[in-house]
Amino acid sequence: MVKALIAGKPMHEILDLKGRVRASREELFESLSTEQFSAVHTFVADEIMQHIEQIEQRIERMEQYLLDGLRPCSRS
């Protein structure tokens, strides 16, 4: 949803992507009102999303590194 909001998608498309959230469609619509989501909000949200994605990539690399390191131990 955040990526769709950053990309400027129409509200109905954003709400269709809601996934696992507890809020109702009406609550989401109110909180995601693009009238209140300025260019500054878009910039900040995009920066945060990029940072999260970088961290996720680092976690994946670390997990792979650890699994590769454990592989010789599992053959014993």
What characterizes the major β-sheet? none
Ends apart, CA distance between termini: 46 Å
Poorly predicted sequence stretches spanning 5 or more consecutive residues? none
Which strand-content bin applies to the residues?
A: under 5%
Annotation, overall tally of beta strands: 0
The percent of residues in helical segments reads: over 70%
What is the number of helical segments per DSSP (H or I, 4+ residues)?
Answer: 4
> What is the average per-residue confidence, as pLDDT, rounded to a whole number?
84
How much is the radius of gyration in Å?
A: 19 Å
Shape: elongated
SS-based class: mainly alpha
Order of helices and strands: HHHH
What features would you highlight for this structure?
76 residues, mainly alpha
What report would you give on this structure?
- This protein is mainly alpha-helical.
- It contains four helices and no strands.
- The chain is elongated, with a radius of gyration of 19 Å.
- The model has no long low-confidence stretch (mean pLDDT 84).
List the helices and strands and how they pair.
Blueprint lengths: L1 H5 L4 H6 L8 H7 L7 H36 L2
Q: Could you give a quick summary of the protein structure above?
A:
The protein has helices at 2-6, 11-16, 25-31, 39-74. It is an all-alpha fold.
